[in-house]
Amino acid sequence: MAISRADLLKELLPGLNELFGKEYKQLHKDGTEYHMRSRYGKYSIYKWEFKDGGRSSSTLAKHLSREEAIGMMKLLKDPA
Questions:
Q1: Which backbone phi and psi does 68 adopt, to 5 degrees?
Q2: Is the pLDDT of residue 24 over 90?
């Protein structure tokens, strides 16, 4: 009898989520991180929020020059 991918996923997923969920929680405590990504010479700024072992992401700015993105990252990291 052959096992389908869906059946295999259904069997493995709970164990993988438990294993990697614990490791992920240790790496990322609750809080906020900001990330800058480049694509085709334009930059985007993302906000990652960690809560209860999960991550949500939102885009703060798109289509920035490198200088604009670096300036925004400086402001986000040190808002004082």
A1: -65, -40
A2: no
* DSSP conformation letters of 27-67: H--SEEEEEEEEETTEEEEEEEEEETTEEEEEEEEEEE-HH
CB 34 within 8 A of CB 47: yes
Domain ranges of the chain: 5-77
Residue 28 near residue 55, CB atoms below 8 Å: yes
**What is this structure's pTM?**
0.58
> Phi/psi of residue 20, each to 5°?
-80, -25
Q: pLDDT tens for residues 43-53? A: 999 998 888 76
Task: Quickly tell me which residue has 């604009």 as its tokens.
Answer: 68
Grade residue 79 by pLDDT with cuts at 50, 70 and 90: low
